[in-house]
Specification:
It is a single chain. This protein is an all-alpha fold. It folds into 2 domains: 82 residues; 88 residues. The chain is built from 5 helices and 2 strands; from the N terminus they run H-H-H-H-E-E-H. A two-stranded antiparallel ribbon has the order 1-2. A hairpin with a 7-residue loop joins strand 1 and strand 2. The chain is rod-shaped. The N and C termini lie far apart (90 Å). The structure holds zinc ion.
């Protein structure tokens, strides 16, 4: 067999099919249907080419199809991971903000009580700085100022606590002590 006959080798149909399925493996919406055929055609193509004893070509196409199939699988794993991880991270962040808000309210409440006992007129959190609070504290959800009401059962309140936004992002159980 010389170089001329080698050039005329027909390409394995399975190798072409593997390449096409490999390309579709990377197309969202089609990839779930194409990944497995890309592998199967690739395996079949390689086996056929090996058995053809040099009469068929297309090993490179089959390899390309299978590699794209692997990339398609990795893409889906990435999407799956994002679907699982993103809500968990958002929940974690919301919980952290709830805890920070609760901690802030404890400091502000203590500061308001201390100021009230010393007959300081306090109507907003900035009135507490710096004598009773080192710096102004705000709700971490939207940076809202706390409501100050000295002498009431709730000397400091989070304005977001009963609002829709706060309820959606914060865990109400963690705010229980504030009410
Ligand atoms: Zn808050």
């Amino acid at each position: 067999m010389d170089a001329r006959t080698a050039k005329q080798q027909p390409t394995s149909n399975a190798a072409i099919a593997s390449l096409i399925c490999g390309i579709f493996s990377l197309v969202p919406g089609l990839n779930l249907l194409a990944i497995l055929p890309a592998f199967i055609c690739g395996v079949v193509a390689k086996r056929t080419i090996t058995r053809s004893d040099g009469t068929l070509s297309g090993r490179g196409l089959a390899n390309a199809g299978m590699i794209m199939g692997v990339l398609g699988v990795l893409m889906w794993l990435g999407i799956g991971l994002a679907i699982v991880a993103v809500p968990a991270l958002l929940k974690e962040r919301a919980l952290n903000r709830t805890l920070t808000c609760k901690e802030n309210l404890n400091y502000v409440t203590m500061a308001v009580i201390a100021a009230d006992m010393q007959h300081f007129t306090v109507t907003k959190t900035t009135d507490l700085v710096p004598q009773f609070l080192p710096k102004e504290l705000r709700c971490p959800v939207n940076n809202a100022s706390y409501i100050i009401d000295p002498g009431s059962s709730e000397p400091a309140r989070c304005p977001n606590y009963n609002a829709k936004t706060h309820r959606a992002t914060l865990n109400p159980a963690a705010h229980k002590g504030d009410q």
